[in-house]
Amino acid sequence: MKRYKAILYDIDGTLLNTLDMNMYPLLQIIREELGEDWAFDQVTRFAAQPGRKTLADLGIRDIDTVYARWVRYVNEYGPGALAYDGIDELLDAAEKKGLKMGIASSKRRRQYGIDMGRLGYDARMDAAVLCEDTEHHKPDPEPLLECLLRLGVEPQDALYLGDARTDMEAARAAGMDFAYASWGSFFPMDRSEPEHYLDHPLDLLKVLE
Questions:
Q1: What's the Cα-to-Cα distance from 74 to each of 103, 108, 114, 178, 190, rounded to whole Å?
Q2: Model-level pTM?
Q3: Each residue's pLDDT tens digit, 113-127
Q4: 163: which residues sit within 8 A by CB, 6+ positions away?
Q5: Phi/psi class of residue 134: alpha, beta or left (left: φ > 0; alpha: ψ in -120 to 50)?
Q6: pLDDT tens-digit readout, 129-163
Q7: Under 8 Å between Cβ of 188 and 207
Q8: Within a 10 A sphere around the Cβ of 190, how many other Cβ atoms?
Q9: What is the rounded CA–CA span in Å between residue 127 and residue 82?
Q10: Count of CB atoms within 10 A of residue 149's CB?
């Protein structure tokens, strides 16, 4: 079995369950800005992309002002970001194996500090490449390649864990293997598509043996 030297992680839908805390506030933004009532399943398609791009796709003009309000609604929503069951054990196992760990995400740095910092996960990462760090975003491979550069690891020696097709496309373009986090995904994938199809975070331990 292939031996990896590093794991790169997506955050939303992969390490953390942030869907409700992001999408219900987005529904509120849509009501306020567009005067329309959308169903929850109509906005889940925006879950994997940067927030400002979502607002632009919706045709909202004053993106900076509306984005700041959306962020405020997100951070006022319920319990905030929650780790999926098994993530703590996965990170523990990766650390014990001496694997380097990094983040390649479209999340903005301030929100990263809130979501990952509250759980102590930011301190466990050897590198974090976020929205502000690259000109291009997934499915472009730039965030993944930048993270690998910071880790000092070659693409063929690393694995990317994510929940969206854009994650897989970015991994393929970067020359990395991809593991599909089905537990948090709203982007169905056939089991034959990724190198590793995972039903639960701890399934990755078998890949790392």
A1: 21, 13, 11, 29, 32
A2: 0.88
A3: 999 999 999 999 999
A4: 10, 12, 13, 14, 48, 180, 181, 182, 183, 184, 185, 186, 187
A5: beta
A6: 999 999 999 999 999 999 999 999 999 999 999 99
A7: no
A8: 8
A9: 21
A10: 11
